[in-house]
Structure prediction request, 414 residues.
Amino acid sequence: MFKKLKFKQLAVLCFCLAVLFGASVQNYKYAQVERINELSSNSYINNEKIDPQDLFLESWLLVKQSYAEPHLNNQNWSRWKKRYANKIKDNDDAYVAINTMLASLDDPYSRLLSKEEFMEQSKSIESKMYGIGVNIASVSGKIYIVNVIKGSPADSFGLKQGDMLLSVDNHQIKGKSIFQVAQYIKGTLNETVTLVILRNGEKITKKVKRAEIKVKTVECKKLDKNTGYIHILSFIGNETPVEFISALDKVKDSKGLILDLRGNKGGLFQNAVFVSNLFLKNGDIVSVIGRDGMNSSYRVQESDFVYDKPLVVLVDGDSASASEIVSGALKDNNRAKIVGTKTFGKGVVQKIYALPNQMGMNLTIAKYLTPDGHDINEKGIEPDYEVTFTRDDLQKNFDRQLEFAKNLIAKQIK
Prediction:
């Protein structure tokens, strides 16, 4: 017999937002936004300590009872319990065993998170981190700074886009993964991190004091007097709804809007529902098919405010998950034209479980369909207008997709 499951759950799925508006965007009441914050709180990290063997057994049972596909990729799930019986001695053993077990589901989205990985994900949901304010990427095995957040310590101390990292606090970067390098950079608040960078062939040492970095997930501006532009970089933050309301308020007087979801790999399910609801007067937003085959439709909630002006959505191959929920809802309800390239194709929903020993698990619990019943998993959403970049566009820093969207909006306004 197993003990009662000890997992606390972040309910990223289980409620439908009641979108409450006053007479304008500025009068928006934040009751449901506060609920998102509450559900996504870092307090859900489970500090209970249990034996690593028990952690494995409880994880085994959780997957058996909750995974979206009850046949568990057509395998005898008991074999995993037998395989690791009395073989797990510490949390590292449990981490390897549980992730090996999850890998057998052939599901890239279900995985066990170590204490460090789970805390990192929790901070992402809270839209904050302790660090210096840079985004890094691996190019041909070398780690480069690809973005410096304005006003961050990195900005103040002169780090620049294109700087190549050679070492962080005497840790050599060569051969290290993005995650490892990020862990070197992030750390204790107000402590100094020493970076050696290569810039224009010259080695430069920078000592940067870490601070709390507020991560913005929404950017906006007016492209011209008639066209507003909102870029949602991610749906992961529990501040995303607040940021989006603020952005929409700033461009609400525009005659048309471009919503940019390019590069947005997804985030919280309820944030996608929230954003979709702001543009629709009625109809379905998304349908969720659970483990038992039950279909739960998330319908548009009636509100006093709906943005009903011309709308174009930009997408690309990195637009995934929550981005596809929004794109699918607006396309199937004939609310917006989709411009760009085919989206990624992630049509499944995960729930976040806080496990004992401060670990976590992202587990696929359902799949979703667009309002017209399309299963987009591993297929993506085809744009109404396919627009691709040329090599010349990239060399000239010309955004052909955005220019196409601007012309399309202008025609709709006329």
